[in-house]
Amino acid sequence: MDIKKEISEKENVLLTMAGKRPAWVPSFHDAFASFMSGYLSGVMDEGTKISTDLWGVNRITTADGPIPMNTKTRNFDLPDITKWRDFMPTFDIDSLDWEKDSEAFRSRPENEGRMVEVSITGSWEWAHTCMGFENALEWLLTEPEAMFDAFNAAADVHIKVLKNICRFVKPDFVQICDHMSTRRGLLMSPASYREIIKPIEKRMVQAVNDLGAIPLLHVDGLFEDIIPDVAEIGFRASRPFQAFNDINSFKDKFDLLCVGGWNAHGRGNQSDSTQEECRESVRLAMDTYAPTYRYVFFPGGVSPVFAKNAAWIADEARKYGLGFYN
């Protein structure tokens, strides 16, 4: 019997999210269909390979994806946080062609039966993209009021963007992207997070709930210090929930869905990884986190540079995950 014909990928994810035994271990790239607005990510110019986003920030394409050009040039689009008002978009967001922006996504037949995920930019993500990590961290300390006001204004824009997207794309999940940590821990103190970033995230989570979707926080690295806060403001899932967090403890304590659990720093993600090492990294993640449910496998951090690794990982996730609960 082909169990994948009995229930859909979406139905299977909903089972594990509810703490129930799913038919198989969901694999993110099979179970989710992800949409990121071109206005937020920027449409790439094929000649220059540069994309420009809603805020006017230019990104250059690399093997691992687009990065803000100011990362290398240090020519920041917002060089002074006290002048953030001059940086806000002056055009009418509602007048942009959101239907056209979503056309390609909505027309893909392979999205049928999957969880639809829409991604928007969080306050910290907006900050370090526009002003660089060093400036953003400095201003959290020296200009907290200006940062808070700017975060609120940026959140207004992103909430309006989300509402426009949701007129044409009906998401099950909304992913709010806020890269606030490294594998060593948070980039800022938990106190700074709670004072300046948490209230903004809470407002964005409420907007997601109002639209009938499930809020998901995208944050890499070790963020255990604020996981109780993340759960408190209403996030119900996290991606890529990396393996140096105590994932089982937090997902069970707060009913959080873990989308991740794969060790991007292990032997399964190296330039000289063997096929068996890649496949074993998948089995290790599933063996560790799938038995207590609320788990979707996601190889967060797998480098596109190692294409063969990614193919082996995806194949093992389907094969091993399919028979895991049987």
Give the SSE map.
Layout (H helix, E strand, L loop, with lengths): L8 H9 L10 H4 E5 L1 H4 L1 E2 L5 E3 L5 E5 L2 E4 L1 H4 L24 H9 L8 E7 L1 H9 L1 H10 L1 H22 L7 E5 L3 E2 L2 E2 L3 H21 L3 E5 L8 H6 L4 E3 L7 H8 L2 E5 L13 H15 L5 E4 L8 H16 L4
Parallel strand pairs: 1-6, 6-7, 7-10, 10-11, 11-12, 12-13
Antiparallel strand pairs: 2-3, 3-4, 4-5, 8-9
Helix pairs in contact: 6-7, 6-8, 8-9, 12-13
Please tell me about this protein's structure.
By secondary structure, the chain is α/β, with parallel strands linked by helices. The protein has a single domain, classed as TIM Barrel (Alpha-Beta Barrel), CATH 3.20.20.210. The chain has 13 helices and 13 strands. The chain has helices spanning 9-17, 28-31, 38-41, 70-73, 98-106, 123-131, 133-142, 144-165, 190-210, 227-232, 247-254, 275-289, 307-322, and strands at residues 32-36, 43-44, 50-52, 58-62, 65-68, 115-121, 173-177, 181-182, 185-186, 214-218, 237-239, 257-261, 295-298. The strands form three sheets. It has a seven-stranded parallel beta sheet. A four-stranded antiparallel beta sheet has the order 2-3-4-5. α6 crosses α7, α8 (144-165) packs parallel to α9 (190-210) and α12 packs across α13 (307-322). It is globular, with a radius of gyration of 20 Å. The protein starts with 8 loop residues before the first helix and ends with a helix.
